[in-house]
Amino acid sequence: MDVRTSGRQGGAPPDAPHASRVRPARQEPQRPGGAAVLPDDLPDGLVVADARGRVVCFNAAAARITALPCEDALGRPVEQVLPLEDLEGRRWWKVTDPYGGLAIRTGQPERNLLLPGGREVLVSARYVRARPAGPVQRLVVTLRGTEARRRTERSHAELIATVAHELRSPLTSVKGFTATLLAKWERFTDDQKRLMLETVDADADRVTRLIAELLDISRIDSGRLEIHRQPVDMAAAVERHIRAHVAAGRPRERFARRIVTPLPPLWADPDKIDQVLGNLLENAVRHGEGTVTMEVAPARTRTGDEGTAVTVSDEGPGIPEESMSRVFTRFWRGSKRGGTGLGLYIVKGIVEAHGGAITVGRSPAGGAEFRFTLPAGVPAFMA
Length: 383
Hints:
The chain has nine helices and 14 strands. The protein is α+β, with helices and mostly antiparallel strands.
């Protein structure tokens, strides 16, 4: 990679006339048109010091992260430009000693360090030697801000808090009822016992669903969500979910089903598709109003291939425009009617794992409308 110095070129000391450019260790691919990749093009901070420990490259990202202008960094000792300390207050350069330490070292793994003022930064280093166990010819340091990691940590903390809150209520109920039954079994009538046991059973189901959601989130975030494709009759699946809601006591006239035929053959994971349909239908019933309509129709995917689209809409107040961009994020709740706020995040992950896409909008009746499209056809391994 042709690494050129950012900022003023005259910052190197007089006895190092060639310190303004780092000689490339190898030739990297160039941009279209022949332009070399420049340090300022990199998203992370890049600081390069020569064999004497003087900074010869300090890119724009490094200047932004350290709040130090490029021209003030070039030519100065790297330990002065980056006065880094670990979280215990020890000077990082004194601990690592890149130029005087063991000659077999190749660098330093990424770790959290502190800049002046207590600003955290992720730092890693690479020691470039002309030959194995030879002296360090170049010290390459990369800097990254901690904002992304902090967002991830906050997200994990929110997830843990949500799980703890959601688990506390059903587990308290289960513990209370089982302890009461064990201690005073003879004092209760059969109807009272049945009511308590039914409550325990419902709360156990709630805990099971929450644990299943957590496992799904873990697999989605790590890219390990497994899809076992089989032929799926989407129209029959939609009808089955509607029947389940009617059997649970909801009026049949609240649901409408529209099937546009002929539908292309669909290969998908039946269990995962049931999870998507159940979540979207439950969301419409709980948070929407009026008739809930489920439509299945042939459609084109984003790539123009043949696919199947499922639309779930209601006649309620809908989702505000300013909230639509956050619908598929963790912990988003459309109302105060309960729920963990994880369902739609999981739905999006399942649909995308199938190679499909999901959108949210406003239905013709004014309510919320969710539409997901899945690619049709036989999987490649069976073609």
